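User: Continuing from earlier, I have the next pair ready.

Assistant: Great, send them over.

User: Here they are, in order.

Assistant: Folding the first of the pair now:
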Amino acid sequence: MDDEDLSPAEMMRLIEEQGAAAARRLQPDPLFLYAPWGLAWLVGFGTFFLSYGLDGRPIAPITWQLALAVLMGAQLLAGAFLFWTARSTVKIRGGTAERGMMYGYAWFVGMLSMGLILSHFAPMFPRDQIGLLYASVSLLVVSILYMAGGAVWHEWPMFFLGVWIAAVNTAGATLGPGWHALLISLLVGGGFFVMGIVLRRRR
């Protein structure tokens, strides 16, 4: 059947289907964007929780060095998966690419600056609070960058995710290292999964 034989309603449906197919090629699956980080935080901070315990007594014989290695390794795997996913999508140039590049640099500069500043002040804190200091401040930077990213791309879900991370991080920091690790693992790690599922349904 030629295009000339289509009714206006069928033509409109065809245009919408082609537009949706093009959008799927340009935009990666939201679940693939959020789930890897959710899994990384769920496993990484879950390991910290097992190392800390809620009352200062470890639940499992896991050192903080091992817990940190698990968290860093999980985040590296998540980043590698996202890089692989991004390579399979259509490359976007122009203003959007420039904003993405600057946003990526903001993450690098923010985390590097935070690490250098905390390495100066950390020796002034009790040993059992240093891990909480690094975790809570790094998550504060993460929450701010997510809110900034939501503002840059006009994405309210991304902005609200940043607000959620800030709220859970603040509550956990006031309760102590074990509670902080548990709340971040379940509520923030799980929150990434929920965000990916919600955005996938909306898509």
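And the other member of the pair:
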Amino acid sequence: MAWGGPGVPYARWVTSVTVRVPAKVNLQLGVGPLRDDGYHDLVNVFCAVSLFDEVTAAPADDLAVTVQAAPDAQVAIGGVPVDGDNLAVRAARLVADRLGVRPLVSLAIRKAIPVAGGMAGGSADAAAALVACARLWDDPAAPKLDLDALLALGAELGSDVPFALLGGVAVGLGRGERLTPVPAGGTFHWVFATADGGLSTPAVYAECDRLRAAQGEETPWPAESPELMAALAAGDARALGAALTNDLQPAAIMLRPSLRRTVDTGRDLGALGALVSGSGPTCAFLAADEQHAADLAAALAAADVAASVVRAHGPVPGATIL
């Protein structure tokens, strides 16, 4: 089918596109010194897990976004913007600009990923919007936006967006956007404990810098953990649990002291590994297998140390058209 010409989107022939996109957990988050541009060099080992948002893009008379919680998902969506501050809206505009079309699209976001929870829910929605709008507007016979082009657009939007496109397991360098896929030798089972309210990622990084300055020690450059990489390759959950690290965890706990109790409780209940996910405040607990995850989730829920408790597994694929 022919391309409609400049300013005429392919959406004329497409009713809607729905993209499913996963959350992420950081198996290792190594944070380097503060750079001149205000960012940090990172070693970020991502794993995509089976908590999914869905974004549906449909032709519209204007650019609009709606947000709802997925069925049975305990997700507070009140803080999700429904204007130009929504990262999915920015993604739609970026795709439209690259393709030379008008950004006339309705974005319907259905969320199951915790909001402001350190699991890249906003970045995931942006990745889904990139894929959905590219399919909606690009020329199917000669697409201008392949995966590499979408990864580049994702890096313009945020450090975590490219990984949401890719999924699986990957090492992210730079700000986290330069990705190298990593093979995983098995499926890992997780329990996530969410908190009331979110944590600002910039605030957590700023607190990390403050804590380091107070210690008066030079911040080392981060490096991949050989133990973690070996555990991933072997599919060894116990070794992976012992190798989990997050340089932002002390800052997140300083800003939200209750997280210490959540992490400690999960360890006491038998988690193989426990850490704050990304910038928090969601806490992640690694289980030995699916049954262990179910038992651990029930025990954490009974301990009353989280707003909600959910299970997931990974790695899973990145943004996928349904």
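Worth noting for the second one:
The first strand starts at residue 17 and ends at 34. The CA atoms of residues 204 and 251 lie 6 Å apart.
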